[in-house]
């Protein structure tokens, strides 16, 4: 098994999902010294902004995908992964040829299962990060 060297662009791509949480952590540390004097609305905003960013990103992604498909931006016919994801998430309808081709439907099913497993891992990571942030907040409040 060989391990490749990660260059700076790959490192940025790998760390990009975690960078959205970093500003919240900095905000919490910034208010650490005056946490007892903190206005409740400001404290709620520190918590709500990251949560709303995550929720709105999913809404925006769904809205943007539907608009692209409406404008005629369709994946190529030979791109099975994109077609399987879009059809599995009901953005596109299965064609009669797709439904009759059992091998293609099996490949689509495997791709969709793999995609759903990746999303479950993402959800678990998100929940763990939220739990850790809550624990950090509790720790900062009661220290």
Automatic annotation (TrEMBL):
Keyword Membrane tagged: yes
Protein's UniProt keywords contain Transmembrane helix: yes
Stretches that traverse the bilayer: 12-32, 38-60, 123-142
Keyword entries, A-Z: Membrane, Transmembrane, Transmembrane helix
Record's protein name: Uncharacterized protein
Protein's organism: Fusobacterium nucleatum subsp. nucleatum (strain ATCC 25586 / DSM 15643 / BCRC 10681 / CIP 101130 / JCM 8532 / KCTC 2640 / LMG 13131 / VPI 4355)
């Amino acid at each position: 098994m060989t391990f490749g060297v990660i260059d700076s662009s790959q490192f940025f791509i790998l760390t990009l999902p975690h960078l959205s949480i970093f500003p919240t952590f900095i905000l919490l540390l910034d208010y650490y010294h005056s946490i007892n004097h903190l206005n409740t609305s400001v404290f709620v905003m520190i918590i709500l902004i990251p949560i709303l960013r995550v929720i709105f990103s999913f809404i925006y992604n769904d809205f943007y995908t539907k608009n692209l498909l409406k404008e005629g931006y369709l994946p190529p016919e030979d791109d099975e992964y994109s077609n399987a994801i879009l059809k599995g998430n009901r953005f596109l309808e299965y064609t009669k040829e797709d439904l009759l081709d059992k091998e293609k439907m099996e490949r689509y099913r495997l791709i969709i299962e793999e995609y759903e497993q990746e999303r479950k891992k993402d959800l678990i990571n998100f929940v763990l990060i939220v739990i850790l942030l809550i624990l950090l907040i509790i720790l900062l409040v009661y220290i």
